[in-house]
Amino acid sequence: MSSSPFLNFIRNELRLRGYSLKIEKSYLYWIKYFIRFHKLQHPQNMGAEEVRAFLSFLAIEQNVAINTQKSALNALAFLYNKLLDQPLGDLGFQHAKQGRRLPIVLAPNDIQKILSCLNERDHLMFSLLYGSGLRISECLRIRIQDINLDQGSLVVRCSKGNKDRTTILSRKLAESLNKQKSYAQKIQQDDNTKGYGPSLPFALSRKYPNAFRQLSWMFLFPSTSISPHPLTGELCRHHLHDSVPRKALKTAVHEAGINETRVNCHTFRHSFATHLLMAGRDIRTVQELLGHNDVSTTQIYTHVIGQHFAGTNSPLDQLL
C-alpha cells in the first residue's frame, strides 16, 4: 500500500503545502490505518460515518491516549476537507477531556547532578536544553550559523508550527560550543572530500550546489553515519537521532540517583521556564523564549510554583 498512487498523491500534496516530514509520516500512518480498518475501501467511497467509527475504535477498543486520537482526526480531516473536497462536517464525536497535568521540574542541584554524569558532547546538549529552553528536536537541528556567542543568542529554526525564534544562549558554554564546532567542522571537511556534506533544507542544494561545503550549514551535533536525504535521496550527513540523547539521559539519571521516573529531555525545557519565572522574569518574555503562541500555554508553569501569575505571593508572606 505504501507505494500506491493514492498515497503518493497524498505525500506530494503534503510536501507542496509545506508540511514537515514528521507530519507527513504521521498523516500517512493514520490514513493507511483508516483504510485497513475499513477493509481497504477507498476513502472517496467513505465519509463521516466511517471516520466516526474509526475514532471510536481507537478510543474504546485500542484505548489510545487523547493526543493520539487527535492526531488521527487531524490526518483524516486533512484528507477529507483539503484533498478530497468531501467536508466531514460535524462528526458528533466528543473528545475525551484530558485533565491538566503539571510538568515535571527538576531542582537546579538535580540538574547539576545529571549534567555531571554525561560525557562532554551530551553535557553540552542538555546544557542547551536547560539554558536556552529548547525542545530536543530543536537542539539537534542547530547549525553553526544559528549560534551567536557575542550577542548571547541562539536562532531556533522551523520549530513547532514551522516558526523561527531567537532565544538566549549562555556564554558559559563558549568553550564547549567552540570545541563541538571544531569537531563538526572536521567531520564536514572529511565528508566534503568524498563529495557530500550536511543535509540541507528544501531545495537549497539545487539552488546553491556548493552550500554543503560551507561551515555555516553544518549541524552542531552531526550524525555518526551517512544516510540518504529523505526528499532527494542524495547521500548526506544528518544530525544525531533523538534516541542518542534519550539513552544518555536515562543512564545519567540512574547514575545521579534521581528517583523521578518521568524525567525526559523535555523536563529540561520545563525547568528552564519554571526557574525563570521563579526568578521573577516576566511571563511574556518566557513565552517568547519558549515560542508559545498563547500565553495561556506558558501559564502552566506558574501553577508548578504555586502562583497563578509570576511574582504573586501569599498575602501571609507580608505578615510573617
From TrEMBL:
<dbReference type="GO" id="GO:0006310">
    <property type="term" value="P:DNA recombination"/>
</dbReference>
<dbReference type="Pfam" id="PF00589">
    <property type="entry name" value="Phage_integrase"/>
</dbReference>
<dbReference type="InterPro" id="IPR010998">
    <property type="entry name" value="Integrase_recombinase_N"/>
</dbReference>
<keyword id="KW-0238">DNA-binding</keyword>
<dbReference type="InterPro" id="IPR004107">
    <property type="entry name" value="Integrase_SAM-like_N"/>
</dbReference>
<dbReference type="InterPro" id="IPR011946">
    <property type="entry name" value="Integrase_integron-type"/>
</dbReference>
<keyword id="KW-0229">DNA integration</keyword>
<dbReference type="InterPro" id="IPR044068">
    <property type="entry name" value="CB"/>
</dbReference>
<protein>
    <submittedName>
        <fullName>Tyrosine recombinase XerC</fullName>
    </submittedName>
</protein>
<dbReference type="InterPro" id="IPR013762">
    <property type="entry name" value="Integrase-like_cat_sf"/>
</dbReference>
<feature type="domain" description="Tyr recombinase">
    <location>
        <begin position="101"/>
        <end position="314"/>
    </location>
</feature>
<feature type="domain" description="Core-binding (CB)">
    <location>
        <begin position="1"/>
        <end position="84"/>
    </location>
</feature>
<dbReference type="GO" id="GO:0003677">
    <property type="term" value="F:DNA binding"/>
</dbReference>
<dbReference type="GO" id="GO:0015074">
    <property type="term" value="P:DNA integration"/>
</dbReference>
<dbReference type="InterPro" id="IPR002104">
    <property type="entry name" value="Integrase_catalytic"/>
</dbReference>
<dbReference type="Pfam" id="PF13495">
    <property type="entry name" value="Phage_int_SAM_4"/>
</dbReference>
<dbReference type="InterPro" id="IPR011010">
    <property type="entry name" value="DNA_brk_join_enz"/>
</dbReference>
<keyword id="KW-0233">DNA recombination</keyword>
<comment type="similarity">
    <text>Belongs to the 'phage' integrase family.</text>
</comment>
<dbReference type="InterPro" id="IPR050090">
    <property type="entry name" value="Tyrosine_recombinase_XerCD"/>
</dbReference>
